[in-house]
Request: fold
Amino acid sequence: MANIKRRALLKKIFGNFFLGYIMSKSVSMPRSAYANEIKKKHVDQIVIWKSKRRLTLFSKKKPLKIYRIRLGFDPVGPKRSEGDGRTPEGNYWITHKNPNSAFHKSLGISYPNKNDKVLAQKHGVSPGKDIFIHGGPKSFLKHLLFDWTEGCIAVTDTEIDEIYDMVQINTPVYITS
Reply:
């Protein structure tokens, strides 16, 4: 039984690593030229697929760039209460930008929305607050291997620099399982 769990863990780690490597090599332009071309585009929507660990920036309904993400430490299912370690699911927007975040830079997300508040009240709990898209932890290995946030969406520091520059306040954010 232990061998099966160990094999599944190694498959997940190395599968994600090699998938990320292949995806990063599929761009035909040099990386810096590609990044500069993307920064000229206007991001009008952010879509986050939790199960795929993917954040995609869209412009005029076309994907601009895809990022691998990390989520809350208990990522399956929607956020229901403060401290549950889950990342919310639903329709939100970017509320503010913080260039001096504890995690490099961050983009505030409008969680909780009206539905989140109603569900929390129905269950007699606080829905929580302070959900962000932000940079990674000091340990890159932790970011590479684990879902580690308290419910936020994490990318690397280099990636949040790029996202931060392209995304404006009030940009819609759709988070789905």
Summary: The first strand starts at residue 45 and ends at 49. Residues 2-25 form the longest helix (24 residues). Residues 1-29 form one domain. The chain has two domains: 1-29, 41-176.
